Amino acid sequence: MKIEKRWIISFVVISIVCISGLFWQVPLEPENVHSQFGTIDQIIPADVAWMLTSCCLVLIMTPGLAFFYGGMVGKKNVISTMLQSFICMGVVTLIWVVVGFSMAFGEPLGIQIGDGFYSFVGDPSTFTFMDYVGVLPHKEIAKTVPFMLFALFQMKFAVIAPAIITGSFAERVRFISYLLFICLFSIFIYSPLCHAVWYPTGILGSFFGVKDFAGGTVVHMSAGFAALAGVIVLGKRKNSNHVPTNIPFVLLGTGMLWFGWIGFNAGSSMEANGVAAMAFGTTTTASAAAMLTWIFFDRINGRKVSALGACIGAVVGLVSITPAAGFVSVPESMFFGFVAALVSNLVVYSKYLKGIDDTLDVFACHGVGGIMGMILTAIFAHGEDASLLHGGWGVFGHHMTALLLVSIYTFFGAYILFKITNKIIPMRVSEENEIIGLDLSQHDETLFPIECAE
């Protein structure tokens, strides 16, 4: 059997990365960055316990997303679709350890504007191979838990972001080219955006004042606009009409996502405190409101109440409340879920989105849900001058400017990365392989006996 060079290169790369760990000199003292760290007695055990739990909750979201997407696609593409989400736990984890965390939370690289310094990305060499990332807390971004725990928590966010994108181009992408794309996306889009929003001197968070409690901008908008770019580059499927294979998979995946989202949002408080409890409440309530809004809105538009619709609505609610989970009240969170469900539902059934063949409506759910969450956060976030309704006209204006900038950066950045990936390794499978299905053509596996799959 002839082995393609691209797979040999892939094996060589992973070999170099893993073997180099044996020879990497781990610094004993945090020399140039020692001033960033606190002491062991500043760690609060309750916060550590909660953040360990939150890490596990967020991790379960990626397998949950695999079931959520896997149940929606046609019977010939279930395994391939699920694997595209699942594999992110391997690929992105290593990228995060080697360079991603440094680019997201390393020494800031940016510009001086007046009296302030605003950064765009972290120095890739700061925490390479997790140098200096250990049991001590960080004085600015992880004050009461080990810095390693903070890095692991943030890793789970980085893992699920590219996994979300996969639903847009399901049933037509070559697996090896997809692996290359998620590497590029994690390095050039996710990590810089994460730094810009969440690092203390990040330009979107400090200069524009963007409020993103748990990733509505960083995770969902970036994934949503990347998904839109992907379907434009890859084009429509040969046969875009399919029946979802396994609705119980979708229900299971939704349950896992909802369960994990508690850690996603409430864990973003970084402490076991009242803000975490409030985020728990707003997350649950927004999802419930969106789920019911979606199915009732479907019904008055002549569509039957469906389990699939209930699941999609629930996820849209979770997406919309994510940027505001710790900034708004529980009653306000119901409005978040209600509005986001209405807008996303209208976009899902729009002629334009159907025309470009976003397979699982990723942009309509995550992109639009993230946009609505960001807008509503800028309107309702509590605190003096924190939002439009609390005297923060400037904050609202900055949010809208940042929304535009993030949309442009993530869409065109992903578009360029898709083009680069496609140039190196063509992303579309052949028409023959698309007809056979990606389960068999890419992985030689099938959910059903071969005679059924055919």
From TrEMBL:
It comes from Flavobacterium plantiphilum. SUPFAM superfamilies: Ammonium transporter (SSF111352). It is a multi-pass membrane protein. It is found in: Cell membrane; Membrane. Residues 49-446 form the Ammonium transporter AmtB-like domain. InterPro entries: Ammonium/urea_transptr, Ammonium_transpt, Ammonium_transpt_CS, NH4_transpt_AmtB-like_dom. It comes from the Bacteria. This is Ammonium transporter. Belongs to the ammonia transporter channel (TC 1.A.11.2) family. Keywords: Ammonia transport, Membrane, Transmembrane, Transmembrane helix, Transport. The chain crosses the membrane at residues 7-28, 48-70, 82-105, 145-166, 178-198, 218-235, 247-264, 276-296, 308-328, 334-353, 360-380, 400-418. Its main location: membrane. Coiled coil: none annotated. Gene3D superfamilies: Ammonium transporter AmtB like domains.
